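To whoever is on call:

I kicked off a structure prediction for a single chain this morning and the downstream step that reads the tokens threw a length-mismatch warning. I double-checked the sequence; it's 223 residues and nothing unusual in it as far as I can see. Pasting both halves so you can look.
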Amino acid sequence: MKYPCLVLDHDDTVVNSTATIHFPSFVEYMKIHRPNISMSLEEYFKLNFDPGVVELFTDICGLSPQEMKEEEQFWSDYVKDHIPEPYPGMREILWRYKEAGGTIAVVSHSYGHYIRRDYEAGGLPEPDLVYGWELEPEKRKPDPFCLLDIQEKLGFTASQLLVLDDLKPGYDMARAAGVTFAAAGWANDVPEIENFMRQNCDFYFKRVGDFGRFLLEETDQKS
């Protein structure tokens, strides 16, 4: 197959989580600790896209290092009791890919144990490797560490990997590692995000089904 290793983001790529979990958690935390900050879901999507989630909390919301630790615990406790649903069609796509011999890795800003929980709860195939927020900060997206580590551990070349992600840190990571990047555009309808992804990414998919057809057609091709 052309892409024997699929590297998936988690939130808003495989599962619908920002609108249903992460943004509500953010709103609740800010009500308590930064009541002067008000943000729409669209604005939250934009800032997660660029400059990224850490910069959103530190530079824009003004959280100190200690407050960042407190917010992280607040978010973790919230996620513990909320399990996101996979996007319709994603389960079938990933199972067909896995059954055809594909390898699935996850590179995400969520915790690894929650990612594995979500895969199990959603009836998704178990990932072969998971890289989550528990990584040292310098190894998280957008750093290319995870993609290089996947290649080293599983014996793939950069050209055999396909990254699917909805945000710019994933794009930056793929570009830094010389890996093909596909943009997942089904989580939001923010023009700034869609325009950037369409203009800069190797592939852009607005619907899960479109990505599935592409992936499975490439999977059926002989290498």
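Update from on-call: the warning came from a stale cache, not from the record. Cleared it. Sanity check on the structure: The chain has a mean pLDDT of 95.
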